[in-house]
Each structure stands twice: as structure tokens, then as C-alpha cells.
Amino acid sequence: MIIDKPYAIGVDVGGTNTVFGIVDKRGQIIKSGSIKTGKHAEIKDFIDELSGALDTLINQVGTKDEIKGIGVGAPNGNFFTGSIEFAPNLRWKGVIPFVEMMEERIGIPVALTNDANAAAIGEMTYGAAIGMKDFIVVTLGTGVGSGIVVNGKLVYGHDGFAGELGHVIMRRSNGRLCGCGRTGCLEAYSSATGLARTAREYLDMRPNENSKLRTMPIEDITSKDVFDAALDGDEMAKEVFQFTGEILGEAFADFVAFSSPEAIILFGGLANAGDLIMKPIRESMEKNLLNIYKNKIKLLFSELKESDAAVLGASALGWEVK
Amino acid sequence: MIIDKPYAIGVDVGGTNTVFGIVDKRGQIIKSGSIKTGKHAEIKDFIDELSGALDTLINQVGTKDEIKGIGVGAPNGNFFTGSIEFAPNLRWKGVIPFVEMMEERIGIPVALTNDANAAAIGEMTYGAAIGMKDFIVVTLGTGVGSGIVVNGKLVYGHDGFAGELGHVIMRRSNGRLCGCGRTGCLEAYSSATGLARTAREYLDMRPNENSKLRTMPIEDITSKDVFDAALDGDEMAKEVFQFTGEILGEAFADFVAFSSPEAIILFGGLANAGDLIMKPIRESMEKNLLNIYKNKIKLLFSELKESDAAVLGASALGWEVK
Question: What are the DSSP calls for B234-288, one per residue?
């Protein structure tokens, strides 16, 4: 007998907050909540608080029997092992057997992946990639992440760590130092922090050029400040977006040579910059594409509402739990 | 009723020769032959000659009912459309509906893909990738090609043209002109022709350095000459292999960030150089890998006997024809 359960749960473990929600089959979040990720030094205490909060939500809509599964998106979440492995931005060090601990505590099947993979599953289930079998989601936030779908399935790779496209090397000489310890990674240029860094470099290197960005302390400049200045017509700020988009476009042209996707979908902070970022990406990608791929690849923005996207993405994994 | 047919046919359409064979389930080529690819200006006449030659072979082992399918590897062969599309090295221009024409003529199901994809299926069926679900075959011949396997399936992409890893950009400024019309492609450096070009550049740029390669006309130097000189202890020739392998290793590190494969398998001409090419690849790849991938990725040589590899690879596709 197949029991068609009406709900899945999505949990997004972020560096600061962990947000969660009960989601129905149409992608509506019908109950949601959040807790502080960093409150507990021990992962056991965190799982206790999270499970307690979920129990409360579940009781408001029905019983545990109506939940198909819990999908969790977390930094360095490994789908194959069910563990969070060496996540630099979380308090719990080493390998955390998240799925095992969570299932034991709450009695519902749990699946785990990283946040970019969760975003890709979310786009496929509820967003811009409905009906697509080959696409790539690129998340442009504090870092650059990616979730790759081939033949309708997420690419996890041999070890569960496929899709680290923020760490392909875009500049092989004099490349910027990346958080990963290497130099020249895409992430060092095209994340929100990379974009702010470009702005600071431009301000430093062109002392005689006027810019609205000079009205604030240079160390405090964020991607949002650059965005506001660019919208306001600031030439230097617009150039910063141009440079950031060009490098992304170069990288996307190489990604296409790998999996020839129907679309590349932008997700996260910088995606909110709209045409400021999309236009240079598109021009640079087309310029750099091998002939057989030209004018074929769709460039899209995520269609998940931003505040819900992480929970929806994780919940989409919850439907697939076995 | 499932009829378990004992044979598949592999056809490899090369720029000069088209070789073919009847293959049994153990990967033994039991009958084989070849014809000249360039003899016929009309594709129809080529298909006639090829089909006639296959009919003769089939009659020697039994009947058409015993052939599961015909797999064809050809330049720019598209698995989805069954067409050879704009192949620069073949006489037949534009889009050639190869599968349709061949099936009509010979009455056996036919499937088509490009030669590097055929090589990947061959390694998975009979070679170094038996039992693997995630790996990449890189072919190092006149060009650089690739066949990517994810979750046990070949990655064809949205349009059938995935896996053009010879055309990722390795040098973004002052890159070498590639046959594709762009500059800085992996293929321009790390194909057999790219390697010979490196040798010519070194000879030109270092007029005072001694090398066995100076004993022949510089335009005539081939990868084989560089290989022979390197085996003979020639320092410049060894450096040429070092440089070629380093760029391949840099590229492989980026490929790993995409699909996190169990192995990368070298196939074709340059793979015969053994440690001369493998050692610099391995060192450079490990140096360039993101930490989470270090010391995990196997680098292997093809285990298909070279003279048979193309036919075996194509025949492996023949088993999968529906």
C-alpha cells in the first residue's frame, strides 16, 4: 500500500540562523520557524532544540505519519554519508552524523545535502527549472556555490562533494587569495564579498576617480553599497558589476562545455542585482562559448521567493527521502 | 520474451579510415574490417559500402537476428539526433542523418555518439572503468576529447553535445589559437599536436639550448619525435612533456570540482607516453585540487587494446540500442 503523505519538512542550517518549515505538495510553506544555529556548543543540544521545535509545528498540522521526510540543507552537508563534514562556519567541528542523530531523535526519515544542492532541487521542484533535466544553479552569496543537475538527477559525484564550481580557477597568475587557501578561484571574484573587494581595489587603484563609494569607510563597503551606487548611476560601481559579471560569464562558458545544460540559474544575494549582473554575464558567456553552444543556453534568475527559498529547497529533498 | 542476442557491432568513423567489428559479450572482436572514409563524396554511397561490408561479416557469424545493435562513434556524432553535425574533418558537410540512413539500409538498430563518448562507454563495459559510476575519459589525440559518466550514465547534456573538455579555457591572456577559433583552449596545449607545437616553440625561443629535436626540420616534429627524444634523455623533450602534463593537471583539478569522479582515464596517442605524461599530470592536479578532493582521484590509463579500442567503444553503445 502506498501512503501518499501530504507534507515534507525543509530545514536550512545557516551560519547564524536555522530556519525550517512544513511544506505541502504545491510548495506552500504552511508552518515555519527558526532557531539560532550557534546557541549550542554541542550538536546533540542543537538537534534537541530543532526537533522539539519541529514536533511543535507538526502537532499544529497533524501527526508525524503525515510527513514524508525531512530535507536538510547545511554547509558541507554530504548526501551520501548524511554527515556535515568539516564546515568552517559552524561551531561543531569534524564530522557530524547529522542524519543519524536527527532520525533517532525525531523518528522521521531525514536526508542531508549542501545548501546549493538544496537550491537546485528546489528550483527543479517548485521554481525556474520545473520540467528541466539538465541545468546548473549557481548561488552568489558570501561564497559561490553550485548545484548541478544532469539527466534529471543531482550530481553528487563519487564522494558526495561534486559541484564546487565556486572553486574553479579563473586567474592562474596573480589570482586573488580565496578562503579555500588557493588563489584565483571564481568565488574570490564573483561572490558578494568578491564584488565588494573589487570595489575596494578600484577605489585604491584609481585615487583620482570620483565615486559615491568614497563617502563611506572603504573597509565597510558591502555588495549592497555597490549595488545602491550603481543604481544611482555611479560609473565605478557599474564597472564593478561589469567586471564581476564578465568573470562569471567566462566561468559559465567552461561549465557549458562540461554538461551542456538547458539553463544556468542564478540564486542568492547578487542575483537580486538583476540586469546589472546578468547583462555582463550574458555578453561574456556568449563571447566565450564554443560555437556549438552559442545562443542555446538560457540564463535565468531563481523563481523561489528569497525568504522561502532555502526552506523550499531543503523540503524538496524531503519528498525524495526513502 | 527476451531474446538474448549474442553480438553487437562497433563502427568507428575516423577522418581517414572507418573500422568496424562484430563483438561478443566478453568484449572479443570476432570479425573485423575497414573501409576508406573519404572515398565517397556522397554519404549515401558510404553507407552502402559500409552496410555491404557489415552484411558480409554478419553472414560469416550467423544472421542479423543475432546482432543486438550497431554502435557508431563519429566526429560530432550526436546521440540525441542520430546525426553527424558539421564535422570539420569529414567530406560530408552540414547535418547527416546517419542513424536513419543506416537503419533503413541495414535493418538493425543503430546508435551514434562521438568518439570520446564511445571510448567512455567502452571503458565502462570492457576496460578500466568496469564497476565505476562516476569517471571521465580524456582522449589525447590530434585533439582533446572527453566522455563524462555520472551516476553510471554518459552525460549528453540538453543538446547531445556535453563533454567538450578540450575546449575549456586554460590561458585567458595570450592564449594559443585553437582549431575552434578561440584562444587558450586545453586542446591547443595538450593534444598531440599541441605538444609538438610546444616543442617547436621551445626550439625557437631557446636557440642556444641543445636538443636532439634540432636534428630534424622543425616543421616536421611530431609528438612521437618528442616522445622518442624524451625517452632518450633529451632534457628539452622531457620539459615539453612536463609543460603539457602540468596544464592537463590544472584542467583536471577543475573537472573534479564539477563532477567529483572516482577516476580520470587517459585514452589515445599521448596516453602511450606513460609516466612521462602521467607524472606531471598527477603532481599538477594534486597541487591544484581543492582540499576536499586531494588524494582521492584515481588517474588511470585506458585498458582497451589500442587497435581495438575504437571498435570496442562503439560496440558497447551497440548493446544499449533500443
Answer: -HHHHHHHHHHHHHHHHHHHHHHHHH--SEEEEESGGGGGTHHHHHHHHHHHHHH
pLDDT in the model for residue B307: 73
CA distances from B291 to A251, B46, B247, B254 (A): 20, 51, 19, 13
Residue range(s) occupied by CATH 3.30.420.40 in chain B: 7-123+307-320, 130-302
Could you say which of A169, A180, A260 has the minimum Cβ distance to residue B157?
A260
pTM: 0.92
Q: For A151, which of B153, B163, B167 is closest by C-beta distance?
A: B153
Q: Which of B205, B202, B180, B207 is nearest to B191 (CA)?
A: B180
What residues have CB less than 8 Å from A190, skipping those under 6 apart?
Answer: A140, A144, A244, A247, A248, A251, A270
Interface test with chain A among B252, B260, B264, B296, by most A beta carbons within 10 Å: B260
Dump pLDDT digits (tens) for A144-197.
Answer: 999 999 999 999 999 999 999 999 999 999 999 998 999 999 999 999 999 999
Domain A132-302 = CATH 2.40.340.10: no
Cell of B120: 567512455
ipTM: 0.92
Q: Could you tell me which CATH number the domain at B130-302 has?
A: 3.30.420.40
Within the 145-184 window of chain B, which residues sit less than 8 Å (CB to CB) from chain A?
148, 150-151, 153, 155-165, 167-172, 180-182
For residues B167 and B295, is the Cβ–Cβ distance under 8 A? no
Residues of A in contact with B134 (CB under 8 A): 157-158, 162
Quick one: B7-123+307-320 is in which CATH superfamily? Answer: ATPase, nucleotide binding domain (3.30.420.40)
Best residue of A150, A246, A287, A293 to probe chain B, by most B CBs closer than 10 Å: A150
Q: What backbone torsions phi and psi does residue B319 show, to the nearest 5 degrees?
A: -65, -25
